[in-house]
């Protein structure tokens, strides 16, 4: 492939990596990871609410990695409540998983920026054969993509398996019991998915630029090495 086309591919990959770093950084600080509705089962059972009456007992909840908001509905109108994970909810959430998600988000940002820098260096500089060349480009893209996948797996398990929304909804509630009515992942969660796919796409762009996967050896080189060994 001509050098100008390689430079263009590396520039595109570098811009995409930098955009993923910015998108992940923006996603960390938002409350748009999960949104849903919560049902006040205690209130609904007290008045035997059904049909349209049930909407008076359905509140809203949304949260991110650091904070969130819930609106409790128990038949007397909505009452908003702001909360933060640190330190308010540390006793009721799976803290190790939650901290791991934040840690992998940080690693994803760092390696996305590192990858963007090396892509630009290979586009406009003189690439070396180790960390600056194709081996390094594959490495940074693989690490960033893996971090994105781990973030989605860990956060999904925290929400679905550990019932994070219900734990938040019942935080500091002594009388009323809340159940998750609807629940869905929001924009910030899908931003991580897009970033993971972008880093996977960057690895394909490296291959499209003409670089073989760095851990694969050609048959010719293997045959030549074997012939040399036989000479000695």
From TrEMBL:
Keywords: Membrane, Transmembrane, Transmembrane helix. It is a multi-pass membrane protein. InterPro entries: Clarin (IPR026748). Coiled coil: none annotated. The chain crosses the membrane at residues 97-123, 135-155, 189-209. It is found in: Membrane. GO terms for cellular component: membrane. Belongs to the clarin family. This is CLRN1 protein. It comes from Smithornis capensis. The lineage of its organism: Eukaryota, Metazoa, Chordata, Craniata, Vertebrata. The gene is Clrn1.
């Amino acid at each position: 492939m001509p050098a100008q086309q390689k430079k263009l591919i590396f520039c595109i990959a570098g811009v995409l990596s930098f955009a993923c770093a910015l998108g992940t950084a923006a996603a960390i600080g938002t409350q748009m990871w999960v949104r849903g509705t919560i049902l006040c089962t205690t209130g609904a059972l007290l008045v035997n609410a059904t049909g349209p009456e049930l909407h008076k007992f359905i509140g809203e909840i949304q949260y991110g990695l650091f904070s969130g908001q819930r609106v409790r509905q128990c038949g007397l109108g909505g009452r908003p409540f702001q909360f933060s994970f640190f330190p308010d909810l540390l006793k009721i959430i799976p803290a190790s998983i939650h901290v791991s998600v934040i840690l992998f988000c940080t690693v994803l940002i760092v390696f996305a920026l590192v990858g963007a820098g090396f892509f630009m260096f290979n586009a406009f500089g003189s690439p070396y054969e180790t960390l600056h060349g194709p081996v390094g480009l594959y490495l940074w893209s693989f690490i960033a993509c893996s971090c994105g996948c781990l973030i989605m797996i860990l956060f999904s398990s925290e929400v679905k398996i550990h019932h994070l929304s219900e734990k938040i909804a019942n935080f500091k509630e002594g009388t009323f019991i809340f159940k998750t009515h609807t629940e869905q992942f929001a924009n910030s969660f899908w931003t991580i998915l897009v970033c993971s796919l972008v880093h996977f796409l960057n690895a394909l762009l490296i291959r499209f630029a003409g670089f073989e996967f760095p851990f694969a050896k050609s048959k010719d080189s293997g045959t030549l090495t074997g012939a040399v060994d036989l000479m000695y």
